Structure formats: structure tokens, C-alpha cells
Amino acid sequence: MKFRKLLIASLVMSLWGGTMLFADSASQRVRVIVNGSELDDAGIFTDGKTYLSVRQVASTLQSLVLWDEGTKKVSIYKPNVHMFLFQDTTIFGNVVKGNKITFKVFAQIDNLMTNISAVKVTIVDPGGNEQIIQSKNVTVDKDNFWYRTDDYAYSFDTAGKYTINFYMKVSAGDDWSLVSQKTITAKAP
């Protein structure tokens, strides 16, 4: 009787293990590298095709993602956003550590293939702390526009890289999508 139970248990384990090995070989996880950085959510390779997270790829490429529930369609839009930083009428990209300056962010947006409802501009210090420079609801229904923030006073207290982020929102209920970045370097005097 023991032998029979042992034989049945061995047979069940063999079938289960073989099934698991087959399932593992049928779909494989793949590493996805974009511009030298590995995505957190790996892709899956199965039946000769690679499947990736649309949201993560779009986020990495600084694009907008729209999901249409009715048609079950995902659309990805990559607008061109060029930012310029002005202190008075002078364009800048570097500052001296410890200086407090007043500046504005000027953005030229083109190739915008979808309507948007809001924009937001932030600054992130070298420690990762983010502050909003300006956030505004907008009505844009054309493929290009210009956007300028109000004057913003900021102290560059730490040496290092500060990042200006430009976000867009397709509709009020959507999450913010990062679509462009600009770097300011604060150097020791």
C-alpha cells in the first residue's frame, strides 16, 4: 500500500513539475533597456513576440498614453517640448551654488496630436525634493503652442544638478505625464 501511494505521489509530482517547466519555457521574462536604463517592469517573450508594459515604455519615452475603453485601443503620443530658462532676458543653464535667482520657464510645444487639459512645471533639487513652479489648466486643441511660467524665485543652495520637469494632463481625471526635462547645474563659487 505504501509503495502504491509513493508511486502515485511521484507520478503527480512529475506531471506537475513537467507542466511548470513547460509553462516557464513557453513564456520568458526579458530585460528591457531604454537609453541605457533598465525598465522596472520586465517584458515577457512568448510565441515569438515580446510584450511590454505600455505605461512604463511611454513614461520612459516621456509620452502621453490614452486608453479608449470603448474600442479597447491604446494610443501613445510623443509631443516635442523644448524648454528655455530665462533670467530676465538671458537664457541660462548653470548657476552659482547659493544664489537665489528669479527666472521663468518658456516652452515651445509642437507635434501635439491630442488635446490636453493642464500643464505643470516643477523643479527637483539634487536631493530629489520637487517643488511646483506653476500648474495651470489649459485648453489646447491644436498641434502646437507656447507656454511661459510666471517669474519664479528659487535658491540653489546645494551644488549639483537641478531638473526642470514639464508635465501634461490629457483630461482632468488623468495622472500627470512627464513629457520633457531640462537640467540646471549649480556649481560651487
TrEMBL record:
<feature type="signal peptide">
    <location>
        <begin position="1"/>
        <end position="23"/>
    </location>
</feature>
<protein>
    <submittedName>
        <fullName>Copper amine oxidase</fullName>
    </submittedName>
</protein>
<dbReference type="Pfam" id="PF07833">
    <property type="entry name" value="Cu_amine_oxidN1"/>
</dbReference>
<feature type="domain" description="Copper amine oxidase-like N-terminal">
    <location>
        <begin position="34"/>
        <end position="116"/>
    </location>
</feature>
<dbReference type="InterPro" id="IPR036582">
    <property type="entry name" value="Mao_N_sf"/>
</dbReference>
<keyword id="KW-0732">Signal</keyword>
<dbReference type="InterPro" id="IPR012854">
    <property type="entry name" value="Cu_amine_oxidase-like_N"/>
</dbReference>
